[in-house]
C-alpha cells in the first residue's frame, strides 16, 4: 500500500447477491460540460437528414434495424473491437431484404482512457473504416474524464473535447478514409427516426446527468419525453446502467433516480433503455408502475474487454442461481 494511504478503504461496498444497484458514491465526480454552440434548444437530429429516403425505406420494410453497443475503444489493441466491427459489416452485407442495419448507435466509451482526440484514428476510425453506415453516439465516462492515472499520458484537453470534435461537428468533415465527422447537436440529444425517437443522455464520469444542485439535462429530458408523439416508440440511452448484477460496477442509483424523475415529470416512460459501461451483456425487465414492462439492456462488450478475463463477471453466487433471477428491487 502506498505511503499516505495506510488504513484508507477505496473499494465499493459489496452488494448482496441479487441486488442490481450499488450504493451511492459519497463524492461522485462531475466534469463541466462543453458550451452549446448551436442555435436551438431542442437538440434534435433527423435521421432523414443523414440517410435520405430512410423514412420511405423503413415504412416499406415495416421496421427499423440498427446496431448498438458500447465500450469499444481498443486501448489494449483493436483485435477484438475489429472482430466485432467485421461481424457488423457482414450483417449489413448479408441481411435479408428489409432487415439491413441502417446505422450504429454507440453507447459510450468510444476512446480510452480519457477520450483524447489523438486516439480517435486508431480506436475509432480505423476499426470502423469499412462499416458502411452512419455512426451516432453518446459519451461515456472515459470520453469525458480528464483525470489521468499513474502511467497515463498527460491530458491537456477539456472534458469531451475529442467527442464533440468527432461527433458534434458543425459541418460534416472528411476525417479518415471513408468516414467523416458526425453532426449531432450536442453530447445529449435526440435522434428522430422512423417509428422511434432515440433520446441520448450523458451520465458524466460517475453517473450524474446533472451536477449537484442543477437540473438542465433533467429538464431537457422531461421535455423531450413529453414531446414524443404517442404513435412513436421511445428508446432512452445512457452510458451508466440503472441496473446491473455484475461484481465490479453494479447499477447506478443516481442515474436511476434522475431517469425516474424525468419519467414522472413528463408523464411518459421509455419503451426501452440501452446502456454500456459494464463489460458484458445483460437484460432486465422492469415492471414500471404496473403500466408497462421496460427492458433495460446492457451492451458493453464492444471491444475494450479484449479477453474473457477482462469481461465483467456476475456477482459471486449468481452462477449458482437459476436465471432469469428475480431481484428484490
Description:
The structure is a single chain. By secondary structure, this protein is an alpha/beta fold. The protein has a single domain (40-320), classed as Metallo-dependent phosphatases (Purple Acid Phosphatase, chain A, domain 2), CATH 3.60.21.10. Helices cover 22% and strands 17% of the residues. The strands form four sheets. A seven-stranded mixed β-sheet has the order 2-8-9-10-12-14-13. The chain has a three-stranded parallel β-sheet with strand order 3-4-5, with no helix packed on it. Strands 1-11 form a two-stranded parallel sheet. The longest helix is centred in the first third of the chain and has 16 residues, at 79-94. The chain is globular. It starts with 20 loop residues before the first strand and ends in a 30-residue tail after the last strand. The model is unreliable at 1-10 (pLDDT under 50).
